[in-house]
TrEMBL record:
It comes from Gambusia affinis (Western mosquitofish). PANTHER family: TORSIN, TORSIN-1B. The keyword Signal applies. One of its GO terms (molecular function) is ATP binding. One of its GO terms (cellular component) is endoplasmic reticulum lumen. The keyword Transmembrane helix does not apply. InterPro entries: ClpA/B (IPR001270), P-loop_NTPase (IPR027417), TOR1A_C (IPR049337), Torsin (IPR010448), Torsin_1/2 (IPR017378). One of its GO terms (biological process) is protein localization to nucleus. This is Torsin.
Length: 336
């Protein structure tokens, strides 16, 4: 009990004992009981009032909205039929399980601008009222947080992660640019991703870890081109078609943060999520969505101009946007 509450209780006790001469014992018991109850209720009340004003690690601020994630994936992510399906299934399954046995670990792979950051943001927004601005959502960008190849501090990363999860077990960690992260750094948090009940009294099983990387982008693109050349639509590409080539290329990428980590061979990653390279039609959709988000009337001609301004590869076919939808926002400013 906090000192302040103790003082209140003491005063109440003194008051009730001074009344004791006038009252009989059962009435005293009742008075004391009411006093204790009042203090307790005040405590709960002030905590919940506090939580209405400021973000807390409680359902008021943290609760999963499946409808929101589903509609956002439908309306804001383009050309990713495989990724959107896996993400919805994975997050929904995890969030509706009251007793997960391990944290949810997602690894998103694909070229820049294909929607990996967007998906992380949509997941955050479907769980935390404050979205990416939540105190319980932590974004690490390799080149920003861990810039020096040989000066990283494993201990500090562990302290961060365990500190944040101690503070709130429903924490979300996003590690961007995994392919630029020093090999070994991610190994230092491996223990948190495993099937432990708790480590030093902290349970990590309700947290979510998302890794973003370009690793595997090449092999995904190769597969997408194969389908195209065979005259098959990209929507017929399945996870199975990509899974093996993806995990092989991720594991063999000697520069990536995954290299030589045991994340993969110990199956700590629950889902490898491939992001397909985007075509011109998708860039047009991104531009239309961006105009809508800025409360402008979506203009197809402008969107088309933005899309035509992108660089497409492979050189001769010119099929896929080399930066996906990444530069759409800047280009829109230019064409409007
Ligand atoms: C869930 O999301 C949908 C769509 O964004 C919204 O209409 C609905 O009010 C949300 N539900 C809750 C409980 O916040």
């Amino acid at each position: 009990m906090q000192p302040k509450k103790q003082r209140v209780l003491l005063i109440l006790l003194i008051l009730s004992s001074s009344m004791a001469q006038m009252l009989d014992p059962s009435e005293i018991a009742l008075a004391v009981g009411m006093a204790v109850g009042a203090v307790g209720v005040t405590g709960i009340l002030s905590r919940s009032i506090f939580c209405y004003i400021k973000e807390c690690c409680s359902p008021v601020w943290i609760s999963f909205n499946r409808t929101r994630l589903e509609t956002d994936l439908d309306n804001r992510l383009f050309g990713q039929h495989i990724a959107s399906r896996i993400i919805l299934k994975a997050v929904n399954g995890f969030m509706s399980n009251p007793n997960p046995t391990k944290p949810l670990v997602l690894s998103l792979h694909g070229w820049t601008g294909t929607g990996k950051n967007l998906v992380s943001q949509l997941i955050a927004e479907s769980i935390y009222s404050k979205g990416m601005k939540s105190d319980f959502v932590h974004l690490y960008t390799s080149t920003f947080h861990f810039p020096h190849r040989h000066m990283f501090n494993i201990y500090q990363l562990q302290q961060w992660v365990s500190g944040y999860v101690t503070n709130c077990e429903h924490s979300l960690f996003i590690f961007d640019e995994m392919d630029k992260m020093q090999p070994g750094l991610i190994d230092s948090i491996k223990q948190y991703l495993e099937y432990y009940d708790n480590l030093d009294g902290v349970s990590y099983r309700k947290s979510i870890f998302i890794f973003l990387s370009n690793a595997g982008g090449d092999s995904i693109t190769k597969k997408a081109l194969e389908f195209r050349k065979a005259g098959k639509s990209r929507e017929t590409i399945t996870l199975k078609d990509l899974e093996q080539t993806l995990s092989l290329s991720v594991f063999n990428d000697q520069n990536g943060g995954f290299f030589h980590t045991s994340l993969i061979d110990k199956s700590l990653v629950d889902y490898f999520v491939p992001f397909l390279p985007l075509e011109k039609t998708h860039v047009v959709k991104c531009a239309m969505a961006e105009m809508k988000a800025r409360n402008l009337r979506p203009n197809h001609d402008v969107a088309d101009m933005v899309a035509r301004d992108m660089i497409y590869f492979p050189k001769h076919e010119g099929v896929f946007s080399s930066t996906g939808c990444k530069t759409v926002q800047h280009k829109l400013n230019f064409y409007r």
